[in-house]
Amino acid sequence: MKPIQIKTFMATAIITLFLGACSNVLEEEPRSIYTPDYFKTEKGVVGGLTSMYAHLRYIYGQGYYYNTTETGTDEATYAQSADANFKDMDLSGVGSITPSSSRADALWQPAFININTASGIIENATAIGTVSNAMIAEARFFRAFDYFLLVQTFGGVPLDLGAGELKFNTSPSRFSVRNTVPQVYTKAIFPDLVTSVNDLPDVGRVKGGVTKTAARLYLAKAYLTYAWWLKNPNNIPTYPETTRVDPDGHDAAWYFQKAYDVAAAGIDSHGSFALQPTYYDVNLGSNDRNSEILLYADHTEKSEFYNASSLTFSNGNAPENFAVWMMTPNYTVIRSSGVSSVQREAEQHLGRPFIRMCPTIGAIANTFADKTNDSRYDGTFTTVYRGNWNKAGITTPTLNNANGLPVAPGGAVLSFLNTENPAIVYAAGNGPEGGAVGAGVLPGRSDFVIAPSGISRIIYPGLWKLGTYRTDNGTGLGSPNGASTRPYNIAKLSELYLIAAEANVMGAAPQGGKSARELVNVLRARAGKWRFDNNGNVAKSVDNSAAMTAATPAVIDINYILAERSREYYGEGYRWYDLLRTQKWTELSSSYQICGPAYGNHTPLTVARDIKPYHYLRPIPQVQFDAMIMTASEKAAYQNPGY
Predict the structure, then answer these.
(1) How many other CB atoms are there within 10 angstroms of residue 114's CB atom?
(2) How many C-beta neighbours within 10 Å does residue 337 have?
(3) CB–CB of 208/289 below 8 Å?
(4) What single string gives the DSSP state of each residue in 166-204?
(5) CA 47, CA 466: separation in Å to the nearest integer?
(6) What b-and-e string marks burial along 148-179, b requiring 16 or more CB atoms within 10 Å of the CB?
(7) Rounded CA gap, 70 and 323, in Å?
(8) Helix ranges, 180-331 (H)
(9) Residue 161: partners with Cβ closer than 8 Å, 6 or more residues away
(10) Whether the Cβ atoms of residue 600 and residue 582 lie closer than 8 Å to each other
């Protein structure tokens, strides 16, 4: 079956939160609005479902929403070219999060539009004899999916969009009331996901379509997140204010067990999905849409229309996939013999540099401490930048590089070392002796080098796993200024193992062979298997599984689970939500190390963050208040405290 191909417009109906917010339906005949009668036709249901897959592209791959999920965590900070959107999220004294600057609007608007579309299908499609329960379950999945994202990000959110709780709304309204967190989970998220697990097929209706396994993953994760919310170990405030009592009478332990049981069921019965044999294969561009990926926001290089953006140039707007630009350094500044030796190329190690975000030194040095046995560092970052000037039409066969030694096309020009090396001699500033980027040299090496402690806000390893992949470059540099045409991976089968492991650590009783350590070791064993040295650019058949599993602690705690999650999903938009759920954000991210913003800065600086309890919720976006006619006191009560 062909991948889903979705047109560029987003389906919408008029809802409480966005008076008159209309755009076109994702189907053959663009529409300005959905009506109940439309959803009583099979064509209408299919069109509505198609728009639900399309709405993912307005959230995932959107660089500013991506920023809100990573910047300010132990994984990432702002980089040299960051604007206020990125500095604000860092909470390190260079900005502050406000309803206008948080850019959480990139989630709020498309999520509520999609929720209303889903309700339209759920209410009306049962009248059509040719529409199966499985198709309606797709709508239920996406309604729960969006509410789950919203409740994690903002706290309690409205279930009534103008026509009643979880009802399809077609009448404009300028008033809104937020439900509490328990109400959102128990009235919307859990019932919809339970039905989705029961009614969705093992194999998607279309390629990339949601399945029983995807529903199990999100149900397990929702149970896990709600269990933490009930437990509230660090007394983080919630909003709207409510007691942390489950309306159905269950406690946190009950929900941790439910999370474990559902995740374990997903591991045992995963349909057509399977873990990839190596970590490198999970994120390899030529292996996109592989068997490990449960859900993705799709794109294509075959058609600008279906890709929803230009294939040659992008301005960085949704629904384009441009998140990876944010953590790509300006490697094109590197010079060898005065020549730009690493040209901008539409290739997974390279791509378009925006220099808005960068990894922290702690992420490089500590999270990925084992770079020898564990393949995940090599399968996450670009740590070697290779010469490609020949693809730009420069015919010089070799250029002088570090130590005046020659380097040929394909040779290493700049390398980020795996370990510290006191013999490195760094250049000051951006002179030629440091490759114009203030890099260092080691005796006998033709590549410039930088140690883990020397990464800075301006020169750092890029994010290979999300990197550009094109098949239409020919022998040249391709179109590196176009947005990524790769799917943005949203959910992976591997997460079921870590959800179950986390629930077990929190007290859930394990099934045979599925203790936290055994579950984590499934992924650690896979991480020890190498088939290719990504940054060495050479085949590597090595199995370090035994060493990896032996190194796993006998007793695993939450911090270890979080470290494994970072090794497995670094830079994919998981981290802020992981730290919120476990209430470890302050503990793990209140300070970080990074070198300064100028070339030649290689002295680590320790930066403090001021993470307040109220920051555990993002502010309701300003666009929401602009759309409502309510009194000043009503609007103040609607906003999360602290903002």
Answers:
(1) 26
(2) 15
(3) yes
(4) T----S--S---PPPHHHIIIIIIHHHHHHHHHHS-SS-
(5) 29
(6) bbbbbbbbbbbbbbbbeebebbbeebeebebb
(7) 11
(8) 181-183, 190-199, 212-231, 252-268, 279-283, 304-307
(9) 15, 16, 17, 112, 115, 116, 119, 167, 169, 173
(10) no
Res. 560: pLDDT tops 70: yes
The structure tokens 């600008």 sit at 304
The letter for the amino acid at 479 is S
Residue pair 102/95 in contact (Cβ under 8 Å)? The answer is: no
In sign, the C-alpha dihedral spanning 79, 83, 85, 90 is positive
Amino acid identity at 90 = D
- Rounded to whole angstroms, how far apart are CA atoms 517 and 506? 13
Whether 216 and 197 have beta carbons less than 8 Å apart is answered as yes
Would you call 617 exposed, middle or buried from its count of C-beta atoms within 10 A (0-12, 13-18, 19+)? buried
User: Per DSSP, which regions of 488-552 are E strands?
Assistant: 488-492, 529-533, 538-543
For the segment 141-189, what is each residue's pLDDT rounded down to a tens digit?
999 999 999 999 999 999 999 999 999 999 878 899 999 999 999 999 9
* Confidence band, pLDDT 50/70/90 cuts, at residue 35: confident
Give yes or no for a contact between 495 and 567, defined as CB atoms under 8 angstroms apart.
Answer: no
Contact between 461 and 365 (Cβ < 8 Å): no
Sheet of 448-450: strand order equals: 384-386, 412-416, 448-450, 440-441, 425-426
Give the E-state strand segments of 396-461 in sequence order: 399-400, 406-407, 412-416, 425-426, 440-441, 448-450
Mean pLDDT score, 2-18: 31
Q: Which helix (H) or strand (E) holds 605?
A: strand 605-608
Q: What is the DSSP letter of 439?
A: -
Structural tokens at position 127:
């009248």
Angle between helices 494-505 and 558-569 (to 10 degrees): 170
Sort 369 into a burial class: Cβ within 10 Å, 0-12 / 13-18 / 19+: middle
Per-residue pLDDT, 129: 86
- E strand or H helix at 358, and its extent? strand 357-359
How many CB atoms sit inside 10 A of residue 71's CB? 28
Amino acid in the structure at residue 255:
Y
Residue labelled with tokens 């309701």: 620
Interatomic CA distance for residues 335 and 122, integer angstroms: 58
Q: What letter does residue 427 receive in the DSSP assignment? A: P
Which tokens sit at 220?
Answer: 């397990």
14 contacts 33 by C-beta, under 8 angstroms: yes
Antiparallel, parallel or unpaired: β 399-400 and 529-533? unpaired
Interval 343-400: pLDDT, tens = 999 999 999 999 999 999 999 999 999 999 999 999 999 999 999 999 999 999 999 9
Task: At 219, list the tokens.
Answer: 């149900």
Which residues are 15's β-sheet partners? 18
Round to whole Å and give the CA distance between 40 and 367.
Answer: 52
Please give the C-alpha separations between residue 156 and each of 58, 179, 182, 546, in angstroms, as whole numbers. 22, 5, 8, 45
Q: How far, in Å, CA of 258 to CA of 605, rounded? A: 44
Q: State the distance between the two ends of the chain, measured CA to CA, in whole angstroms.
A: 48
